[in-house]
Amino acid sequence: MNSAKNLRLWLVLGVAVLLAAGLGWMRFATPQAPPGNLAGASLGGPFSLTNQDGKTVRDTDFAGRYRLIYFGYGFCPDVCPTDLALVGRGLKAFEAQSPALGAKVAPIFITIDPQRDTPAALKPFVAAFHPRLVGLTGTPAQISAVTRAYGVYARRMDTGDAENYLMDHSAMVYLYGPDGRPIAFLPHQGLTAQAITQMLATHVG
Ligand code: NI
After folding, report:
1. Within a domain: residue 134?
2. How far is it, in rounded angstroms, from Cα 52 to Cα 126?
């Protein structure tokens, strides 16, 4: 073998090694879906609740769809309406950029205050944030079961006022997958509509 042939052989080998490394890197750098911050968490589970039209709604009714879930209450003076407005705007932006994927997302509001959040009270409340937002309420036992299963903290504050009481509660936007398993959450602190759109763009496929 002369030296020119030798050089060509080494060049061909070198290019082949670089190509293989490049392909390997691309596969590594573009995974199907990065795991969310709730991947593998023991949260969620079955529920049977009542929607804003008085109809029974179960978790299985959302099978095959992503669930964008927020727990709160309709009488909340600040945090809940602020977060739900961001959920509505974030989802609308996602629907505008990916209509087919947007349709696979079910926005759901679950009350932590079933005493005041009756179906009739929930109906205009949820409609104010997104046309497809489902409002869910239930008996106190049903609500305490679903908040426990979904890891939500909620407590009635003792203000001495039987009707105009406030609720202390955790405030997070949850994304659950089509199989009902948790994917990711965003906390109230620093929440933006863009962050919600981004969370959907990252995980909904
Ligand atoms: Ni609230």
Report:
1. yes
2. 8
CA 76 / ligand 1 centre spacing (Å): 4
pTM value is 0.84
Provide the domain limits for residue 89: 48-203
What domain count does the chain have? Answer: 1
Q: What phi, psi does 96 have (nearest 5°)?
A: -70, -35
Q: How far is the CA of 111 from the centre of ligand 1 (A)?
A: 10
Instruction: State the distance from the centre of ligand 1 to the C-alpha of 140, rounded, in angstroms.
Output: 18
pLDDT, tens digit, for every residue of 52-69?
A: 999 999 999 999 999 999
Judge whether 28 lies within some domain: no
Sign of the dihedral defined by the CA atoms of residues 30, 42, 57, 116, in that order: negative
Cα of 171 vs centre of ligand 1, distance in Å, is 7
Going from the Cα of 118 to the center of ligand 1, the distance in angstroms, rounded, reads: 16
Residue 149: which CATH number?
3.40.30.10
